[in-house]
Amino acid sequence: SIVLFDTFVNILSHNLGEPAYEADVAQLEYKLVAGEYGLVIRVKGFNHKLPLLFQLIIDYLSDFSFTPAVFEMITEQLKKTYYNILIKPETLAKDVRLLILEHGRWSMIDKYQTLMNGLSIESLSNFVRAFKSQLFVEGLVQGNFTS
């Protein structure tokens, strides 16, 4: 599930690349993170246009779709990302330390092996459907924002 979640977040970020380009030009920033407790959406910038950017992200989340080519591209990128973490002693040591300290954490080695064994498009589709069926929102707004 963790590898499927990483894949989902990376595909969502990829899908947002072109539509959110104008927001980037307007000095608005967003970041999608597969967090420990769920999807973290961070938006930052001038407050009068942030709701539009946030709405764009939510629209792409609710209407999530992907092609097999994008699925293959993202899984290949994740393989490289996981592998690069594994070959650097300092990041591997950090992963092992967190594995010891955090209950229920999956190691980068487990994630990499799962990805190398192969993910299916159907498993990702089922994961996304289940994820969206249990979705709830917690929010924090800081700065010059009205209610």
Structure overview:
The protein has 147 residues and is mainly alpha-helical. It has one domain: Metalloenzyme, LuxS/M16 peptidase-like (Cytochrome Bc1 Complex, Chain A, domain 1). It is 61% helix and 10% strand. It is built from 7 helices and 2 strands, in the order H-H-E-E-H-H-H-H-H. A two-stranded antiparallel ribbon has the order 1-2. A hairpin with a 2-residue loop joins strand 1 and strand 2. Helix 1 packs across helix 4 and helix 4 runs antiparallel to helix 6. The protein is globular, with a radius of gyration of 17 Å. The N and C termini lie far apart (36 Å). The model has no long low-confidence stretch (mean pLDDT 90). It comes from Tyrannus savana. InterPro entries: Metalloenz_LuxS/M16, Peptidase_M16, Peptidase_M16_M. This is NRDC protein. Keywords: Metal-binding. It holds the Pfam family Peptidase_M16_M.
The first-to-last residue Cα distance is: 36 Å
- CATH architectural label: 2-Layer Sandwich
Shape type: globular
Runs with pLDDT <50, length 5+?
Answer: none
> What is the N-to-C succession of helices and strands?
HHEEHHHHH
InterPro entries: Metalloenz_LuxS/M16 (IPR011249), Peptidase_M16 (IPR050626), Peptidase_M16_M (IPR032632)
Keywords: Metal-binding
GO molecular function, one term: metal ion binding
Protein name: NRDC protein
